[in-house]
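Appendix B, example 12.
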Amino acid sequence: MALASTTALVTGADSQGIGRGIALALAREGADVALHWYRSESAAETLATEIRALGRNTVLVHADMGDAAAARAAVRQADKALGGLGILVCNAAKIQRKPFLDITDEDWASIHAVNLQGYFACSQEAAKLMIGHRRPARIIMVSSVNQAHANPDIAHYVATKGGVMMLARAMALELAPHGITVNLVAPGTIETDINRHMLADPEFRARKLAPIPVGRAGLPEDVAGAVVYLAGEGASYVTGSTITVDGGLTIT
């Protein structure tokens, strides 16, 4: 139980994807976990039931992460409910596939509101609370290999992930004196609700898996393992870093 007596907030925990995997992994390691949800309260409730069955405390918080004030309020709610927040995992994000020349100002603003502003608002609010608690803390951002690796038809998404990478690095620099580490996990092709229907197409799946040396898509548990490491005491000397979880996709 590497995270016994710790508390965490995981954003975007209301799907069959990375957020769910992270929340369960943290709970299995002993953390009490606040679950942020936006679209599916029932999915969040199901996850909460699983976490309680592990003997851990949990609470649900609802917010549109594209609304900075709501994002900050969700962090404060989680902090109060858990008696102080020790770990923040920023995971809630959205993606839209559209050619660069067709992206509208509204598309750009919508993606940035959730993927970059939402991460900023949650992280800043959490950092202020963590400093007040006067104990070591962790902020972990789930980014993407797209923070440094471009793909077609997602220019606005790629731009947010590059921004998240530099936000985390700047935060790591400023928050280190307060005992807060800030790191990133950059997944590659992970099979989740977002892409499961596309990966069900044999032609699409073969094309996506071809450049991955390990020969398979990742699972939410693969990402969760990296998050658990960064959340633990063993990573106390790691900050401003990225753990890439992509099966070797970006080796070349």
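The chain has one domain: 7-245. The chain has a mean pLDDT of 96.
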